Amino acid sequence: MTREPQRDSETGSGERSEPRPIDWTDSDTFARALERVETREKGNCFEDFAEGDLLAHDPGLTLTRWGNESWMSQTLNHDPAYWRSDAAAERGFDEPPIHPDYLTAATLGITVEDLSEKGGYFLGRTDVRFPGTPVYAGTELRVESEVVSTATSSSRPEFGIVTWRTRGKDAATGEVLCSYERTNMIPRREPVATDGGGSATAADADGDEDGSDLPETFVTPTGGFFEDFVDALETAKGRDAAVAYRHERGRTQDDVTVASLPLATLNTAKQHHNADVMGDSPSGDIVTYGDVTRSTALGHARSDERTWREVGFDDEKFHTFVAPGDTVYAFTRVLSADNDASIDVAGTVRFEHIAFNQDDKPVYSGTRIAEIRKRTA
């Protein structure tokens, strides 16, 4: 049976009528509409993750000289091998390569929409590793994350805890360019009852610090070569001393570091871009992407070193937010120095870095392994 077309009640024609006009520009009308419509939400809740799940993050990102140099310049990472062709050639590079800090930030930024867009505390990142070969501009980065574990928060029933293993790969070759494991608190759709015996939260972890007394003496290396770190550790050996020092430079957070740099890595988290939502948060404002804070502190530290190559990072934590107007400083402790680098002209040094703000409050901490150039090379 053929159905007759519905006729417009006024015109009597067989044409479908247009929707009733609504004056969306009338403030009261629009406000009432916003109260009644459904919001299409972004991101995933805790219940959406299950151990063993593999997520391929879309869309990927082509690593560019512009993105790399923008990141390095704004975070004060001025290693000439990443800026000048002659310095790059001396290091064995075909051209100035992509800096590991930008690579790490881009790898994480791409994952935000799928993993942590809903918000929740960043509990830590560890086992950050890079290949021995350089990564160059023009490389197309594709990222995937595997759910390692899910757990209940002992103190926050509205959250769960998820750990992912993330890998950033060269789309052309499949080579892993950056990998790490990170853990976040993720909002639940429905809070659950807890008995207080679940996994630790960031607040719980902060309470476990032993508060040991400071050493009697702090030793500062006389220079930034590998031998200088070896000598400083020898000076401190057998004494109540530590090789530790602060770096003079600071970087005050502005519109570029807080909002623009995350966008260059496809980091869409509202914490960095939505001042309206963040006005009711503890920070009272949008906050700096953690990898900007981290890279800025490392840039300060590297300015006092002869860095040859970044090997990796462990035990990274972000202790409090950094907001526009805050200044990021850096403090370094040297943990060890070993003559076991991948190349004869460098040695391996393990550092502990602390980023802190203008009120001397730690905002980031982590350990770093880097190959540091030898003076005698």
Automatic annotation (TrEMBL):
Residues 1-23 have a biased composition (Basic and acidic residues). InterPro entries: HotDog_dom_sf, MC_hydratase, MC_hydratase_acr, MCH/BMMD. One of its GO terms (molecular function) is lyase activity. It comes from the Archaea. Signal peptide: none annotated. Pfam families: MC_hydratase. Residues 1-27, 188-216 are annotated as: Disordered. This is MaoC domain-containing protein dehydratase. The lineage of its organism: Archaea, Methanobacteriati, Methanobacteriota, Stenosarchaea group, Halobacteria.
